[in-house]
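Aim 2 progress update. The chain analyzed this quarter is reproduced below.
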Amino acid sequence: MPRVLILSTTTGYQLRSFGDAAERTGIELMFATDRCHQLDDPWRDAAVAVRFHEEDASLDAIVAAARARPLDGVIAVGDRPVVLAARAAATLGLRGNPPEAAAASINKSLFKRELARAGLPVPWFFQASVDAHVSADPRVRYPCVIKPLGLSGSRGVIRANTPAELDAAAARVRALLSRKDVRAIRSGVEDSILLEGFISGREFAVEGVMTAGALQTFAVFDKPDPLDGPFFEETIYVTPSTLDRSTHDAVVAHVASAAAALGLSNGPIHAECRVSADAIYILEIAARPIGGLCSKVLRFDGIEHTPAASLEDVLLRHAVGQEISAIVRERAVAGVMMIPIPRKGTLKFVHGIDRAAAVPGIDEVQITAKIDQLLEPLPEAASYLGFIFARGSQAGEVVRSLKAAHAQLLFEIAAPIQVM
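Predicted structure tokens:
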């Protein structure tokens, strides 16, 4: 039985999806996490204890585990494990990305330098200390975006239109980066920020996989809600995209060029881009699959005896070297809403789940936040309230279903207690 190592910072719903896929595909999973004390052991197998900020020792632990249980593939779930996953693959002689390419994919400054070196469009940008008085820097032009160098997604990403707004945004980012939970990540760039020009235009996402340096695209997602700031909370993804064929192909070509510029060669990728009036800008390419439960929006044809296969079904096959070029996404229009957190406070109850699930076109409503969990909205947020999934024959129909279902949900959130 082939065996795949899954590296992740924590357990969760996405890893259970890999567990379900492993059972269907006849692939055994080995799990490595830096939160082993929280592991509920869904595969009844001991996890390899790793610390992503201690790569050498963690790599030694993985290699030792692989001697007893040889590995056939490696997959990183989330941004934090991608470098260790690349190093493990290289050391064990498995399909993966060069470690330096993986490192560039999770460092916003390195990423933009590699794209600029390859001649791809990038906005002006520069790296600075989190304590720098950036509004006084002559390189800043407005509107601009400030973001932490080492946090993923939209966490800490803020648009500023004036020096006063930039000062306020910088103070907010500084406070975020000083928090204990952020310092505990130990990414090595906790004290660095990136300033860059704001790019106007529509935003899209691309999901795919690299095989020997070639991109196979699974889906191009529209993001129908405008993402113009001051924060950049992603809510709805819908595929297939409504882009015209010429622009669609250009987006895919730019993602492939950006992946090549980084040196990504083997494994899943998730890319974000903006189509502006003058160019297509690649905002990021993550060397891992789409996050959270969003992968459930994707279903695939072309796997024998597995109708409506999951993304995890496909990625596990790819990780062990199986041929996946004939596997394609289903023809139906599908969408997901990442339910935003409206305000800071403690979640007390969720009303209307059954009503939301009954909206025509809705496949599933899953609330992932826990009762009595402390919630924070962007730009501090690191999670969502949950996910809504819908299917239909047209993109507009799917978007309307998602928004109608969301309108049925009512969240009781208690205000945080003020400490005097």
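The two ends are 60 Å apart (CA to CA). The first strand starts at residue 3 and ends at 8. These observations will guide the mutagenesis experiments scheduled for the next reporting period.
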